[in-house]
Write a structure and sequence with these properties.
alpha/beta, 129 residues, 3 helices
Amino acid sequence: MKPHITIITLGVADLQRSINFYQKGLGLPRKDESESIAFFEMGGTMLALYPRDELAENITISPAGTGFQGFTLAHNVASPEEVDSTLAEAVAAGAELVKPGQEASWGGYSGYFKDPDGFYWEVAHNPFM
């Protein structure tokens, strides 16, 4: 297998609410006009939003899931100031601030927000990348 992620799909509770959050709130460019799934261009990888119950049915698992799912999504930016402004933009769009931007143990600067469906996003400045 070649190391390449094509699409990250989030199972969401309310598709239209999530589309509004990502498209209108965060300004992500939507790549389709479907009423059953949404795709956003993420610089080579696509972010897909799909109803959680339907995604679970497609996988053939229960849609019941609670708590931390064991992964985060990350968005790297050019400066600590941009971390703070991106976190503020997400909160203004309806996200919950989980951890404000701060110096990280690994030498960078990062913070976290949670989207309307509880997916955790890290916004980070990594001076080593």
